[in-house]
Design goal:
Blueprint (H helix, E strand, L loop, with lengths): L8 H4 L3 H4 L4 H6 E10 L2 E6 L2 E6 L17 E5 L5 E4 L5 E6 L2 E10 L3 E7 L6 H14 L2 E7 L7 H9 L6 E4 L5 H4 L11 E5 L6 H9 L24 E4 L9 E4 L12 H7 L1 H7 L16 H8 L4 H17 L3 H14 L1
Parallel strand pairs: 8-9, 8-11, 9-10, 11-13
Antiparallel strand pairs: 1-2, 1-4, 2-3, 4-5, 6-7, 12-13
Helix pairs in contact: 4-8, 8-9
Length: 345
């Protein structure tokens, strides 16, 4: 169990956005609790005077988004302590489930800021950071790129520059995640009642950073593999952790299991926004349906030739946009693809 020393609802992140959804009548029978962690079929929750584990199954009527995920606010029955309703979310992180893009996996809800964690080693990859930026845009959450293992890189400033170049105004923080003096300023992103999602590949140091900011070593961490520097998928649950702050002012970090892949699906507007430098140029192409191959009057090719657009970035944009188009589409299209997949088996 998480030792919260009985936080108030405000400390847990309760806001008018949530209380507005609860009628006076409902609050007599029910009380709000926040999902602290997700386990198979159960969630642990915390609220005023409540620290409990409740069943999350049996409630689901709709799609996967109707299931409680870490960070969610729930109404539970004051007497039976059973789940009554999931309150509408301020934000929701999700992705197509790995290996099955017809299923959606929920990552975290009601997150204010996303720490996109990557290490100053072989893990550093601008294409992957862009994928997380698209997810953040799509969820309407402020992204912060956190570069860990600064101590292992001879010239981490180059990586900081490369990350900063991905989006104007993008915040990029360079830390040794094991060292509080180096990482302490990250606590500013999670003040009272604020929630930060911590995502990235396995082994980049997400749990190490969370331990440092909460001032304990309660989360297990594990050295990366020696041969290829990859992580060992140490964390297996998504869990909220309280940042150590003066007298209960610390917010929340959601530690998550390292992700192997992030497929793009239903994120067209996120792609457009993260690559707004590229999409702005496409508007200048002579033909509205230009695919920027060998059409006359293609502004993308002209910009590359003039050196105002980076061809590598254009390629990454093309790849994400195509992947998104292939994975998205109407429900009918998805069903027919699903049908084909079933027939193939
Ligand atoms: N030198 C150095 N090592 C670090 C730093 N941050 C993390 N590590 C080490 O990297 C290894 C992996 O760290 P974890 O915190 O377990 O990584 P994780 O991202 O939580 O990995 P998963 O739970 O598998 O997703 C551990 O041995 C950490 O001590 C850092 O800033 N510098
Ligand atoms: Mg971990
Ligand atoms: Zn074009």
């Amino acid at each position: 169990m998480i030792n919260l020393s009985d936080p108030t609802l405000a400390q847990l992140g309760w806001k008018p956005f949530f209380s507005d959804q609860v009628s006076a009548e409902q609050s007599l029978a029910c009380q709000p609790v926040r999902v602290m962690s997700v386990h198979r079929g159960r969630v642990t929750v915390a609220g005023e005077g409540v620290e409990d584990s409740i069943s999350s199954i049996g409630h689901v009527q709709g799609g996967p988004e109707d299931r409680p995920t870490v960070g969610d606010w729930l109404l539970i029955d004051r007497t039976t302590r059973s789940l009554v309703r999931i309150l509408d979310r301020t934000s929701l992180f999700k992705r197509p489930a790995p290996g099955d893009d017809r299923r959606i996996q929920l990552i975290a809800a009601n997150v204010d800021t996303l720490f996109i964690v990557t290490a100053c080693d072989q893990d550093f990859n601008v294409a992957r950071i862009e994928r997380y930026l698209v997810l953040a845009r799509e969820a309407g959450v402020r992204p912060v790129v956190v570069l860990t293992k600064a101590d292992l890189s001879p010239a981490p400033e180059h990586l900081v520059e490369a990350a900063r170049a991905l989006q104007s105004g993008l915040r990029v923080e360079l830390v040794d995640g094991r060292d509080l003096a180096s990482a302490a300023h990250l606590a500013e992103y999670c003040g009272l009642g604020e929630t930060v999602g911590v995502v990235g590949s396995s082994g980049v140091g997400k749990s190490t950073l969370v331990n440092t900011l909460k001032g304990s070593d309660s989360i297990a961490t594990q050295a990366v593999r020696e041969n290829d520097g990859k992580g060992r998928h140490t964390t297996t649950v998504r869990e909220m952790h309280r940042v150590a702050g003066p007298a209960g002012e610390g917010g929340w970090l959601v530690d998550t299991p390292g992700m192997r892949e992030i497929q793009m699906s239903e994120v067209a507007s996120g792609v457009d926004e993260v690559f707004d430098d590229v999409t702005a140029v496409t508007l200048e192409c002579r033909f509205a349906n230009c695919v920027h191959a060998d059409e006359p009057g293609c502004a993308i090719r002209a910009a590359i030739a003039a050196g105002t657009l980076d061809p590598a970035r254009v390629e990454r944009w093309r790849k994400l946009a195509e992947e998104d188009a292939a994975n998205s589409g109407t429900a009918a299209g998805r069903r027919s693809r699903a049908g084909k997949a079933r027939k193939r088996r």
